Each structure stands twice: as structure tokens, then as C-alpha cells.
Amino acid sequence: MSLAPGRAAAAILGLTLALVPFAARAEVPVGVRVIKGSRHGPAQVDPRLSDLKRQLSPLAYVRWDQLSERKVVLVHGKTEFVELPGGDTVGVTLEEHRGNVVTLEVALTQRNTQSRVTVQKGQRIVHGVVPEKNGEAVFIVLTGWP
Amino acid sequence: MEADEELVSLAKAGDARAFRELVVRYQRKVYAVALGIVKDPDLAWDVAQEAFVRVHRRLDTFEGKAAFSTWLFRVATHLAIDAVRKERTSRRQDVDDTDEAAMAEGGEGILATALGNDPRENALRRELAGEIERALARLTPDHRAILVLREVEGLTYEELAERLEIPKGTVMSRLFHARKKMQAELRRYAGIAAPEGTEETS
Amino acid sequence: MKACARFRPMIGHRPGELPAGDARELADHLAGCEACRAFAADVEATTGLVAEALLARAAQRDFAPFVDQVMARVEAARAPGVLGWLSARRRALVGLLVPALAALALIVYVLQQDGGTGAALVQVTAEGEATTVIETPDGPIVLLAPEEST
Question: A87-132 pLDDT, tens per residue?
């Protein structure tokens, strides 16, 4: 093969980049919301949660409030911790990321529960973090590329 | 447009569209009654929805002897009164005596004078409508309930007695006191709002 | 004055609500009592205001979501428990975990509606807990078992 050196270098570089798995560049912005569902009325949904109405509709909770919201940038392998009402924390870790699909691990520190969940861009993960008590339960909502 | 009875039959057989039609038909009026009794709009919304939920749950027991709407409003009334009772902190009893002291208040006739004869055209009447809610809110729950049911749902003395589970004589005296208090509140507003030396409008 | 105490509560009656004798006596009393006449005039002037005000409030409010919310509550009331109701539109079955023995981890695979097993989109490991997963087109819902009441 007789390529000019510059072009050869460019060709090699291109090939190398093509071989590097996407995941190594993994950095995904994730919206994190902590929300509370209640069986007790009045039946209303916090306006900030209107994008979740359809997804939440299978649940028995008639009232939804947003408790907190923040945006984080998840880096592969690094765990982001989110404070919950009641003092517990939930850890969110980026496990895998390929194009528009992301796999997150959601781990509750006080309960021995870890979930590995895969979603596409445009989908949201609603994960229980405080189980129902007195008709109220708390969830965390994770949105990739919010 | 289907009659209530037809929709109820269909709903009893499981037709969700028919039940939805009934909800839409009565939602605002049920809400209005609830609002008059509980005062708070969000609570009224909740009470109104719960009334429909309860009615749906017991559709199979509804035999059609009374009108559907009567049943619906009865459920809504009880829910609203219960909701208010739960929120009540003080337990003042209404003393609806009609004695001479209750008569001697004065000021009668001011409202009729200020409002004139044609209810539709009167600007003061429109303004007063805004004050009504404030005036209503100052009444006790029992007084609010009887006034709202009389006026919004249009119940007769007999129907009021049945709905509120009180004797017919109590209906009339309670209504009288409720009206009296309401008018006292409105009179204050009308007295301020009416210009000096209001002439009788004819 | 004593007569007024008897007659004033009758003011505002509708046809047929009073016994004929009472209605006649009321009319007679009003003919001779200015104060009661004035009270009757006020009642007449304010009749309907309460209904107007409350119905106007109801008219102002946006009732578009009302019937949907009622139907959602109807469904939720049907199936007590955390799940509420599952719409037929949902694409996947629910994987229900039974409480595991302490040391065991359970993994749930969520089936696609066509019966095939897609790549496990949701894996939950939970010790000693019942956990439910609902797969929706908008993304999964992972539910924790309710707390035991203390």
C-alpha cells in the first residue's frame, strides 16, 4: 500500500476511532426527579410532572407532587447519590450507553435492592425508593438526555 | 340526546361511554353544590369526583325508583357535609330560633331597593354575585348546605327535610336564618356600593 | 312582633309548600306588616344569587380532565393494591416477584406481548422483598412492596 504519509495517518486514526467502543466515551446527562404519589386527594398532578401522566396512570396514586429536581452528568462507572426524604439515599450508576440507549443501575442503600434498567432516549425510569406507607410512596424518575 | 334512564341502563351493563356521558352532564352542577358547602375549590373538585366514583360503584344497586340525579346529589351532599365536618375545629351549634330578637335587625328592604326590579340588567347584582361566595363562606356549614341545596339543586321543603334528615319545621327556620345572615353580609356590601341617595329603579 | 316570628320563615316558599291556611294567613300578615314586606322584597331580590355565583364558578373552571380523572379513580377503586389498574394498552406483562428467601437474589425478565422474551430490559434483584415491574411504552415502573404496618 502506498498512501501518502498524511493520508495513512488519517486512515489509521479513522480506523482506531471506529474500533473504540462508544461506551468508553460514556457521559450521559440525566434528569433526576424525586416525586411522591398519594392515594389521598385532591386528585392532581404537579404541573412539572405532566410529561409523566401517562406513564404513571397504571398506579393507584391520584395525587403526584415533585419533591426535588436536578440534572447530573453520569460518567461510566461513577455513582451519583440522590438524597431522599427520610434520610435514605439512592445511587444511580451508568452501566452502559450505546447511541440512544442507556442502561442504568438504581441501588437503594438501606434496602438490599438493585435494579438494572435499560431505556431509550425519550423514555423515563420510574423507580420506587420509599415503599408505600399511609397511602404515600416516593419514586425517583430518571430521564436520559432530558 | 339520551335520557338519564337510558344512560344509567347502559352504564349498569358496563358501558363506560354511557357513564362518562352522565359524568359530563352533571359534573358542573355537582361541583357547584360541593363548592357551596365545602368552600374550598380543590376539596369541592375532589368531593365531586368521589361522588361519581361512589355512584359508579353502586350502580348495580340503583333500581331507578328515584331519579339518577337525585341519587347523585344525595351522595354529593353527604360527602360534602362529611368533608366539612372533618375540617371543622369548633363545634358551635346553630341556634335557629325564630324569636322576637331574631326579627329586630332593621335594614330590611335595602337590597330590594338597590337591586331594583330587573335582575338581569342590574350591575350591582353582578357585583354581588362575586360577594356571594365571601358571604357564603361566613355562614355555618349547616346554613350553607341548606341554602345551596335550596337554590342550586332546587329542592322543596320536603326534599330538604329528607336530604338533611331534619324535620320540615326546622327546614323553614334554618333557611330563614341562613337567608337572614346572607342578607346581612350582602347589605353591608350593597350599602357601600350603592351611590348616595339611591333612587328606586323601576 | 310575635306574628312576625311565625311568618317570616314562611317567606320564600314555593307554590304548594305551605298548607293553604298558612299561605293565606301569611298573605294577610304581609298586607299589614311593612317590615315583613321589606324582608320579602329582599328575599325576592336575592333569590338565585347563590346559584348564579356557584354555577358561574363552575363554568369558569376547566372541566376537561374531570371525567378522565373520575374514570381513573373508578378503575383504581376496583383493584385495591399498589398496582391500581393496568390498561389493556400496555404492551408487556407484569413480572411479579414473590418474596425471596434472605440469601436468594431473583431476576425478573419482562416478556414482550408477542410472547417472545426480549433482551432483559429490566432486571431487579431484591432480597426478601416483593417487587413489581410494569413495562410501559414510556418506560418501566419499578415498584417496591409496601411497608408492613408497625
Answer: 888 999 998 888 888 888 888 877 777 888 888 888 899 999 988 8
Looking up residue B184, the CATH number of its domain turns out to be: 1.10.10.10
Nearest CA in chain C to A44: C69
Closest CA–CA distance from residue C68 to any residue of chain B (Å) = 8
Can you list the positions of beta strands (E) in chain C? 95-96, 122-126, 131-136, 139-144
The residue range of the domain holding B168 is 100-190
Size of interface A-B (CB pairs under 8 A): 11
State pLDDT tens for residues C117-138: 333 356 666 554 556 777 777 8
Distance from CA of C88 to the nearest CA of A (A): 10
Residue A38's DSSP bridge partners are A63, A136
**ipTM for this prediction:** 0.82
Are B62 and B33 in the same domain?
yes
Q: How far B47 CA lies from chain C's nearest CA (Å)?
A: 11
A59: left (phi over 0), alpha (psi -120 to 50) or beta: beta
Separation between Cα atoms, residue C39 and residue C17, nearest integer Å:
19
**Whole-structure pTM value:** 0.54
Task: Judge: A119–C129 Cβ closer than 8 Å, yes or no.
Answer: no
